[in-house]
Structure of Putative peptidoglycan lipid II flippase:
Amino acid sequence: MSSIGRASVLIGAGTIVSRVSGLLRIVVLVAIVGSVGSAAGDAFGLANQLPNNIYTVISTGVLTAVIVPQIVKAAAHADGGRAFVSKLFTLGTVILLAATALAMIAAPLIVTVYIDPTKVAPDQIALATAFAYWCLPQIFFYGLYALLGEILNARKVFGPYTWAPIVNNVVSIIGFGIFLLLFGGPSPDVLQWTPTMIGLLGGVATGGIVLQTVVLLVFWRRAGLQLRPDFRWRGVGLRHIGRLAGWTFLMVIVGQLAGIVQTRVLSGASGTGPAIIATQNAWLVFMLPYSIIVLSIGTPYFTQLSEHAAAGRHDEVKSDIVRSIRVLGLFIVVATAALAVASVPATRVFTNSSDEALAAAPVLLCFLVCLLPLAVLFVVQRTFYAYNDTRTPFFFTLAQGVLVAVTALIAGAAVGAGALPLAQLAAGVALGQSLASVVQVVVATVILHRRLGGIGVRAWLTPLVRFVLVAVPAAAAGWGVVLLCGGPEGWLSASVVSGALGAALVGSVVLAVYLGILALLRTSELEPAIALGRRFLPKR
């Protein structure tokens, strides 16, 4: 608990500040471009998501899966891995520059891939393309940030990678605030946007990512490494890395293709109801507990798990799996219950009215179906990575990607047939993604269980079921608070501030009841969880 606990708290505290400031960023952005029913908001949301998609390919698809275990191994070299890291960094920089240049050239084509021209007006496509030219340079800086951050994580320097996004959020909040002072808002109509407005909004979004990357360079010496350009890429195992990365590239490409299908389906609701940007914002709220809980606790576990796997200590790997899932599950289950009960006030944070919050809340609820399964998948998938197996995750991710695309198309067809209201299209797409993720984690767990000769499924599944049962009365208590406050349409969703305060109030009640019941049941997982929580408090 000592090193894992300290690292988890460092990452968790940074993630909390990062996500809270990120929510403030969303609030200001929504005040500019709108949310539900905003064609301009969907145009910016699409353009700004494009570099994020590339970041997902680089970070999730390659670095986490391949680079961290390889850097851990390279640390045993005579030079402590310095030559390996320099060669890797040089190669990564060259690839990122090339990818960014190609993306800029192909910007109009990329936008039309994500938007169905038969369902979206040409003016909206033109606005999305204009935003894309400003946002696509983020690819280089996102990739550089991910590469530097994962190298720091592999060297057990966890803080900077987690705290750097706060700089991006602060810059964005200030920049978006200046935009509001100059041009006002919201501006949901695509015809309202001038080149100056487009340049300021896109420039602020990209500038924040640039500074976020620069922050990591400031802390680089703490890793005990010296970076220098090194184009001699032979002889350090890059071919082996390429083979491993090949499967992860294919895996993430599957996810991106599924995402393209989702976005094209969602574009059919743009300008009329929850669509692209509303779904993105619901996903960001959904990811708040995932980022704070899963990444802060799971990232140090992954580094430790990689060390145990590299040393052939398989029993310790199994113990890492059981411990991490049980601790993650305790927190994730209560977060799911709290967000479900407070879905309307939580959604009010990224909408401009209570009516919009009521319309967008079902999207968040549908995403929440897969919050606990994704926490389990985080551990299971990274165990494959720790054993340098990126081939198997590709196949169970392929199944998930196919299901995501198929369910999105089904939702779109249901709207076309009149079986699903257009206002619920985004919720249908979100539910399909959640169900696909549930299938994915079941398949992945079965495969890993057979691969390692058991991963203690009963030892972690039984506590998860118990946590879910305990969360039911806790959620009921939270719903009682919602009703006492006038219901979902009461003061809890009257404004952005009341939505945030209401969500915090309901969440606090759910958490208190949940922990109280667990304490009465003398739940063994509660002690390490409380010890972890105490580390967030001042010494005195």
The chain has one domain: 2-534. Residues 2-534 form one domain.
